[in-house]
Structure formats: C-alpha cells, structure tokens
Design brief:
Number of domains: 2
Strand order of the largest sheet: 6-11-12-17-16-15-14-13
Strand content: 15-25%
CATH topology of the largest domain: BirA Bifunctional Protein, domain 2
Largest sheet: 8 strands, mixed
Number of helices: 13
CATH architecture of the largest domain: 2-Layer Sandwich
Order of helices and strands: HEEEHEEHHEEEEEHEEHHHEHHEEEHHEH
C-alpha cells in the first residue's frame, strides 16, 4: 500500500497547480478534438475526477489502453476546471496502466444495468455508482452504530456463530455438521459437475460437537449473559435464517445489531431505540451527502425529506391494542384485515406512521402468541412487554422487549411452546443466579441500509447476498 497516495476525495481539496498522482478505475473515456477526457474513480467518494489529456502528451499506444474498467495511475497536476459542477480537474502528463480491461467484454458500461444483472456480477458492481454509494453509506452507518454504543459505555461482545439453541423458536435454522462423506461425483460436463455427499451417521453424538448444531439466528441469548455481568453490552455480527423466501425483504445471511441492558425496563429500551435511530440516521445524513443526494434523485425521490423528518421528530408511543382500534376505525380498505391477536402488516404500520401520526411510532404490549418466548409477560396474562419501532416508508425497523427475568414464568413459557428445555439450561441459569430486570432490541442492519438509501431489494445493500438457490462468490 502506498501510504502517500491521496484518494480522489482528497484530490478535490488540493489547490490548482499541485502536482500529484491520481489512481483509480476508468469509468468512461471520451475523445474530442485535440484532447481526451477520462472519468476516474477510486471509490473514496461519489464524484468522479475528470482527467484531461491533451493531444501528444501521452504515447498513443499507451493511451489506447485506457479503456472502461482499466486500472490506471495518472501523473500530473490539479487545475481549475472551466466546466460546471466541478471546481478542479486533473491535467495528465504521465500514465501507468496497472490492469487492462477489454471494453468489448467488460460488463459495466456507461448505459447502466439493471439491479438484477448487477447481482450476477457482484464481484464488479461496487465500481458502479449505485453500489459504490450503497457501500459507503453502509460503512458510515456501521461506524455510527459503534460510535453510538461506545460513547454510552456499552461493551461490544462477539457472540458465537454456531449454536445449539433456537433463539426465536421458529426452527428455520441451518444445520452445521461434519457427519458427511463424499460419494462419486454426479455425471455431466466436468466444468459443471457437482460434488455429492451422504450422511455417515444419523446419531448426533457421532457429529463434530456431539449434538445438533446450527448457524445462529440471533446473538441475543448469548449477549444477555454478558449483560448480567457487564450491564450494558451489544453484539453486531452475521446471523442466518433458513427461510425459503425469495422476497425483496429476506436474506439467508444478514447482520444484526442487538444491544442488551441490565437494570432496564421497556421504557428505557424505547428511549435507547429512539435515540439510536435518530443519531445513526443523522450521522449518515451529515457525512454521506453526495451519496444520499444520488439516491434521492435516482432511487427514492422523498428520501432526504423522510430521513430528516425522522431525525427531527419525537416518536409517538402507543400500545398494540390502541393501534388496532385506530386501524379498525380508520375506514381504510386494507388488504389484510386487522383484529386483535394478529400481527400487523406493513400497510398497517405505514398507515400509522404516514397517515395517522405523521412521524415514527413505537408500539408496545403485543399479544404473547405472536412474540418470542423470552419476552416479559404482563400481568394480564395476554400481552408481553414488547415494542416495535415503526418509521415512515417501510414500517417496522426495530423489534425489542423487556426480557422475562422470572425463572418460573420463563420455564412455563418454554414448556408451553414445547421448546427443548435442556438446550436453554445456561439461559435459565441467568434467572437462577442473580437475576436482574433487563431489556434490549434487535435491528437488521440491511433493513437500516435499505431505509437510508431507498433501495427496494435487500440483496442490493449487502456485498454478497445469500438467498434460496443463491450462494455464489
């Protein structure tokens, strides 16, 4: 790595007359009378640096190697730009081509491409405007997440990816096993031949861990153990769900942000979630202006207005029961009917935030039948101390709850749902030895990036998407 190399973002801040080098990948090249113009970008910012090459400055054979997709270095100087929309440009005097790209085969062309096609070339799509902007927003949002928790004294806990328990009780989990053996490869063309395996033993004791093991669907249960010794903690890492869904909102592998706080009730949980949403969005708006302006212009016309509205608006709070009554009295012809005990759909959540209230809403006290086993039961025996943060444009952004700290109640709930109690022995121990009230929430990081960018498909906001039938790259 050349530690003295300046990024294109830094080059824009240099004064005209400064001699330096410009590194990056060629996006376009245009030849005019006596001059060539190259749009160069290294991913450090949204804007391209315009390279001006006067006729005769560079050897023609070398100049012909400067094609769309090529990786190059130009030596020269920063000069004032006579064109609109850019203060400076780069006047080239020397050229070094690091890697050529055949323009007849390079898949990223100026005319653009569909998002579906770009998913097929995920190894190259980051060089384009859209996914480059997505990645910079994702990076800043991740930084803002850590900054938010670290500035409040939270400890970042690395929870395990392999687990023996099902956090959500939904059963949609990927098995982890070494209990397989290779059999003869399937017939077919060698380049397309698939490797086949079979199960060596059906006895879990013969497997690597001596018991059934899975990829985790959440780090929450594990991070709770650290809340019972460190008070305020959070986990931010990959999770996996084997849901056979190909919708634009589901992934098989995604990242979750899950804080947990000891000595905290539902009200404190809601306060933290509201502050989290407003602060993280505010940070991205402040630092990713050009990228967000691109999304506002090309993807979601009201994006910036919506984000600024969320940052500057206090969140409304109401119970699930109150929300159902409002929906039933709305007179709206919803696709899905609303009745107490059923889960709310996106159309209901958006009506509450966009039409009825006009700002983000936090719903609380959901029916226990539609929530996870670990949520604290209310005295009415019908609802739990759960909360969902709803925002305009997408609906639910965060789900959380006060956790059940009473051993007898938690055991009864596990039995009621017919969950394998032995798998939760250590989780129950937290209630046996020094139990404390605690609460937390979960946020799918990709859902947040969709909200920040206005992108409509979750597969377009993660570097390499994993979905049913899709595990390339």
């Amino acid at each position: 790595m050349n530690l003295n190399r300046k990024s294109i973002r830094e080059l824009f801040d240099l004064s005209p007359g400064t001699c330096t080098s410009a590194y990056g990948w060629v996006k376009t090249r245009r030849d005019s009378k006596g001059v060539s113009f190259v749009q160069l970008n290294d991913g450090s910012c949204f804007d391209d640096l315009q390279i001006v090459i006067e006729a005769g400055t560079l050897p023609e054979p070398e100049l012909k190697r400067v094609t769309t997709g090529a990786c190059v270095r130009f030596g020269g100087e920063i000069v004032a730009s006579p064109g609109e929309g850019q203060a400076v440009e780069f006047k080239a005097r020397e050229l070094e081509v690091f890697g050529e790209a055949d323009p007849t085969q390079y898949p990223l062309q100026k005319k653009g491409a569909t998002f579906e096609f770009l998913r097929e070339i995920a190894h190259l799509r980051v060089r384009g405007n859209t996914f480059g902007a997505v990645t910079r927003v994702r990076n800043r949002a991740a930084w803002a997440v850590h900054q938010f928790f670290q500035s409040r004294g939270f400890q970042w806990i690395h929870t395990p990816i392999i687990t023996a328990s099902d956090c959500e009780g939904a059963g949609a989990m990927f098995s982890v096993t070494t209990n397989l053996e290779l059999i003869e490869p399937l017939e077919g063309d060698e380049s397309e031949r698939q490797v086949a395996y079979r199960l060596k033993s059906s006895n879990p004791e013969d497997d690597f861990f001596g018991k059934p093991a899975f990829l985790t669907v959440s780090g929450q249960l594990n991070v709770e153990t650290f809340a019972m010794g460190l008070s305020n903690v959070y986990t931010f890492g990959p999770t996996f769900r084997a849901e056979n869904s190909s919708t634009s909102r589901h992934l098989a592998e995604f990242w979750m942000i899950e804080p947990e706080m000891a000595f905290c009730d539902l009200e404190g949980d809601m306060d933290l979630a509201e502050a989290f949403v407003r602060e993280v969005i505010g940070d991205v708006v402040a630092f990713c202006g050009p990228d967000l302006e691109f999304f506002n212009k090309r993807v979601e016309p009201e994006l910036l207005a919506t984000l600024n509205h969320v940052v500057n608006s206090p969140f409304e709070r109401m119970t699930y029961t109150e929300a159902v009554k409002l929906l039933q009295a709305s007179g709206e012809n919803f696709e899905y009917p609303t009745e107490w005990g059923s889960d709310l759909q996106s159309e209901h959540e958006r009506w509450l935030t966009e039409v009825k209230v006009g700002r983000p809403v936090i719903l609380t006290d959901y029916p226990k039948e539609i929530k996870a086993f670990y949520m604290r039961q209310n005295e009415d025996g019908k609802t739990v101390r759960a909360m969902d943060v709803l925002v305009p444009r997408i609906g639910e952004l965060i789900g959380g709850s006060q956790r059940e700290e009473r051993l007898d109640v938690l055991e009864s709930r596990i039995d009621e749902l017919k969950l394998p109690k032995p798998a939760y022995w250590w989780y129950l121990d937290l209630r046996r030895f020094g139990s404390a009230p605690h609460a937390g929430f979960g946020l799918g990081f990709e859902r947040l990036i969709m909200y920040l960018t206005g992108m409509k498909n979750i597969r377009d906001v993660i570097p390499f998407h994993r979905a049913p039938g899709q595990a390339d790259f």
